[in-house]
Amino acid sequence: MEKLLEVRGLRTHFHTDRGLFRAVDGIDFSVGRGRTVGLVGESGCGKSVTSLSVMGLVASPPGQVEADAILFEGRNILGLSADERRRLRGGKMSMIFQEPMTSLNPVHTIGQQIVEAILAHTQLSPQAAKARAIEMLELVRIPSAKQRVDDYPHLLSGGMRQRVMIAMALSCEPALLIADEPTTALDVTIQAQILDLLQDLQRRLGMAMLIITHDLGVIAEIADEVVVMYAGKIVESAPVDALFADPQHPYTIGLLGSIPRIEVDRERLSTIEGSVPSPNNQPKGCRFAPRCPFADTRCHAEPPPLRDLGPEHRVACWKAPVELARAA
Ligand SMILES: Nc1ncnc2c1ncn2[C@@H]1O[C@H](COP(=O)(O)OP(=O)(O)OP(=O)(O)O)[C@@H](O)[C@H]1O
């Protein structure tokens, strides 16, 4: 499968008053053309910092992004100038965030904002860009798009605003859409509609998606592959079916065990005892060891490498797979 995005050895650190925060500490993953990869983990594990690093949106200082390479369509984008990086963002590589109101400008109509995004990345005339903005609003199924295009953001519901953000992100036909918790701020019915829409658009436009979420329900519904992060590291990655049927890392097993069966408490992954270590004070061995029911002396002393367990199934755990099964 052709790799659209390949991240090698990504390390993103923040220099703070409280010391060096290693938010992302050496991760490798890739997204195939037209595929959906879900990046999952608890709050603070480095998911957003990973996506911002790929997009070139980490503020420096205090942030510092280093990597062996970040290849997009085979080209190392770390070497691009700020201008080239800006052209890539919102062009071939686009991003949507959790809270659309923070990304939409309240004093401009939604049409003006989509047109601006189109004009920044294409040669279209303002008139043609407006026509395209209306087409995009229709594509994301906003009713009466011709009228709504002149609305201000506050006139729209949260779900409609997220559709506008998606329209804007897709207006330049990106090859990769990064969606950071795209449905978290929405209520459950609207979440399902937005996920359906993203899936439908992905199929029709053939784009790849990197979906960042703490919600394994979202992953199960939309992802082809899953990357599980813990405390700045990848602990497991696998095709979605393999991960759900045969999770290997104790952290993943814990996450799956904590999927709430009723919808009222979907928000938190709360059944794993303890909390994520601080990024300026990581354990010496496996970072999950202090919370792991299977950890032994070696786990506390030596960090486990990410290794292949099966076809496209990688895990960073000294105990996986046989000993884990016996210990359980
Ligand atoms: N500008 C910054 N300065 C210092 N530390 C930061 C900065 N941005 C992020 N971090 C730290 O990096 C770590 C990873 O944060 P990140 O936002 O990527 O987590 P996350 O997994 O996306 O969590 P959430 O789901 O809560 O967004 C956190 O400990 C956070 O405090």
Automatic annotation (TrEMBL):
Residues 5-256 form the ABC transporter domain. Keywords: ATP-binding, Cell membrane, Membrane, Nucleotide-binding, Transport. GO terms for molecular function: ATP binding. PROSITE patterns: ABC_TRANSPORTER_1, ABC_TRANSPORTER_2. InterPro entries: AAA+_ATPase, ABC_Ni/Peptide_Import, ABC_transporter-like_ATP-bd, ABC_transporter-like_CS, Oligopep_ABC_C, P-loop_NTPase. It comes from the Bacteria. It is found in: Cell inner membrane. Pfam families: ABC_tran (PF00005), oligo_HPY (PF08352). The keyword Nucleotide-binding applies. Its main location: membrane. It is a peripheral membrane protein. Belongs to the ABC transporter superfamily. This is ABC transporter ATP-binding protein. The lineage of its organism: Bacteria, Pseudomonadati, Pseudomonadota, Alphaproteobacteria, Hyphomicrobiales.
